[in-house]
Amino acid sequence: MSIIPVFIPNAGCPHQCIFCNQKTISGQGTNGLAAARAQIEKFAGYVKASAKNEIAFYGGSFTALPLEFQEQLLQLAHEYMAKGLAGEIRMSTRPDYIDHMRLDLLQKYNVKTVELGAQSLDDKVLKLTERGHDAKAVELAVARLKERGFIVGLQFMLGLPGQDFNSVKATLVKALELKPAIARIYPALVVKGTKMADQYVAGTYKPLTLDEAVEQSWYMYDGLTKADIKVIRLGLQPDEELCKPGNILAGPFHPSFGELVKSYGYRIKVQKIIAQLPKGVYTIVITHPPHLASMVRGMHRANVKAWEQDGNIKIRFQEGKEFGVIINDRKTL
To answer: What span, in angstroms and rounded, lies between the C-alpha atoms of 180 and 178?
Structure first.
């Protein structure tokens, strides 16, 4: 399955949130129907046609667009679906622009998945980031989408103004109550051309460090996945436009952010086991599938160094079908 992304940066948004500059993030500067067609044509040149592919409208707030333009975009998607390029449509939008009239239109064109830019479920954070809606709007939107049978996704940001770790934990609790099918987790970055960039320069906003972002993202990721909510993205896609010099002023950006988060998860799982061991010298064998070797070890063997730091632990690795921990020949995980 391939995603065919169509970026409509800031299109439909009633205002610009303090962290947002979608033209920089997406690399797409224009919003019209011709621009959307050009993007689909670009991907059609090298994506294998399949009914499993999805045409995805990202970047703006799709359901906040004028209804006529929404329908034109959906008709465009169906034109390429009729050619066999894709078989499904998904989109991202704001939670406060989900009502029955708009959902009627989405169902008319068989839209399958709707992702809501929740960002946080803490009203204080939503106000400080000038989202223009509260957490209740997210709850109502999720309920309406589920009533109509849509696959619902929620997008979260960490490190926003007014958002500490306790706020993140409270947001996770509410997210689990809403039970979306999928989720995305992004650490907030200071991108040029945003109000948050002005706050950063003025010294009134401080972004998360990379270590803080990894820890908080793992907390969200672990909580969501344990509840069978699939996290489909960790961190912004490191595309050419976003990574141009000067576009990211500050913040916990890393091109392999998702791998850092998952690697951190393995680190703390083993650390918890080590912390419960009586004093002594131990040989710990960690089993893992071959494709997880670098993630389990950590970037530059960071996990191994953390596990062996007191000198009483010696780590060995062994390929296996699943992740596991064997201590002095006794399996514990």
So the answer is: 6
Question: At how many degrees (to 10) do helices 100-108 and 67-82 cross?
Answer: 20
Contacts of 123-127 with C-beta under 8 Å, sequence gap 24+, read: 124/162, 124/167, 125/160, 125/161, 125/162, 125/163, 125/167, 127/162
Residues 111-166 pLDDT 10s = 999 999 999 999 999 999 999 999 999 999 999 999 999 999 999 999 999 999 99
Closest CA to 295 of 234, 220, 250, 208: 234
Q: What's the token pair of residue 83?
A: 């050619």
**CB–CB of 230/181 below 8 Å?**
yes
CA distance 157 to 169: 12
pTM for this prediction: 0.90
User: Which token pair is 52?
Assistant: 């499993």
98 closest CA partner among 139, 60, 132: 139
Structure tokens at 132: 């223009």
Which residues are registered as beta bridge partners of 183? 154, 231
Q: Give the type of residue at 22.
A: Q
Rounded to whole angstroms, the Cα distance separating 87 from 149 reads 17
